[in-house]
Design brief:
330 residues; alpha+beta; six-stranded mixed sheet; 11 helices; 18 strands; 38% helix; globular
């Protein structure tokens, strides 16, 4: 489908989840309206009061944007951005992001600032460029998708958030609690490029975010830049081994760990070797759900036309410099 390259005068259709991300949801709408008014741009705010209405609102935003030659904008955390991107992908509409979440990996890897005023300047002044999207059984993921221990830690994180609030410290605490509670390894058959092999692993992690890979020290960030996805699996390991891996990741040195199996691919099929297994719990961009087996991870044939600053994001530049420094010191 041809892309509707929206001009800088194109109207904006802003989907924002009032239940998502930071506690500034009441300030978002007025800030967007004021910025658009100053820039002479038309905008329509499309708030989502209940999480169950997000998909429907995103589809309606795409419909209106197609009719008006406009831009669909997602304001929220990675989960909200993922949902709106699912509706936008393949529609021909340009896509904008106002990051309001905890980690904001999608926005950060593309140089979109976390500060609302700065993000609005990008949205109103920059052009759309194509960016890669991952698919898991036709479901979009912009940052990562996973099954096993990593997806369980995300589910536990949501429980902690409901109890203690949203912050990076809460997210890290939930991960530690998941590891210390114990886990089981999965018996899987994975197939890429026609070569199936049996594995046992606590988790399968697939990344589509180069910044996230660079920050933990994995070289597959370059593969993502070149149109592939990054696969990461752990060899069977105990609790203390997992904690050591967590520390290595925080230090940007995960590639040095013998327990890590990392590889790049464009399409990967995962099957569960348990007799009668039909569904498995997975996570896409932090949202946990059940999905039918087998699982197919692949690069989407469509790209998102994302409004973002040109060139390599400064945070990625710094992450690459840190990675190069670590490698030179080995």
């Amino acid at each position: 489908m041809s892309v509707l390259l929206a001009p800088r005068s194109a109207p904006l259709f802003v989907v924002f989840n009032r239940a998502s991300g930071r506690g500034d949801r009441d300030e978002l709408g007025p800030a967007v309206e004021a910025a658009c008014r100053a820039a002479g741009r038309v905008c329509e705010l499309m708030p989502v009061e209940e999480p169950g209405c997000l998909v429907e609102t995103a589809r309606e935003a795409v419909r209106r944007a197609r009719e008006a030659g406009g831009v669909v904008v997602a304001a929220g955390g990675d989960g909200t951005i993922n949902c709106v991107a699912q509706a936008v992908l393949g529609s021909g509409c340009a896509f904008g992001v106002l990051p309001r979440g905890t980690f904001n990996y999608f926005a950060r890897t593309h140089g979109i600032p976390a500060e609302l005023d700065a993000a609005l300047r990008v949205l109103l002044e920059e052009r759309a460029v194509p960016v890669q999207v991952g698919l898991l059984n036709d479901r979009v993921f912009l940052v990562n998708a996973s099954l096993g221990l990593y997806s369980q830690s995300l589910e536990d994180r949501e429980v902690w958030k409901r109890q203690f609030g949203r912050s990076r410290a809460i997210a890290i605490g939930a991960v530690l609690a998941t590891i210390l509670r114990g886990h089981r390894s999965l018996g899987l058959t994975i197939e890429s490029q026609g070569a199936p092999r049996k594995v046992r692993t606590p988790t399968v992690f697939v990344g589509n975010n180069a910044l996230q890979m660079e920050q933990v020290g994995l070289p597959e960030a370059q593969a993502i830049d070149q149109g592939a996805l990054a696969g990461v699996m752990l060899k069977p390991v105990g609790r203390w081994g997992l904690l050591k891996l967590l520390v290595r990741g925080a230090m940007g040195r995960l590639a040095e760990a013998d327990q890590i199996v990392n590889f790049a691919f464009r399409r990967l099929t995962v099957r569960d070797r348990r007799i009668g297994a039909r569904r498995v719990k997975v996570a896409t961009d932090g949202e946990v759900l059940w999905m039918r087996l087998p699982l197919h991870f692949e690069v989407s044939p469509h790209r998102l036309m994302l409004i973002r600053p040109p060139g390599l994001a400064e945070e990625r530049r710094q992450a690459q410099a840190n990675l190069a420094e670590a490698e030179s010191g080995r």
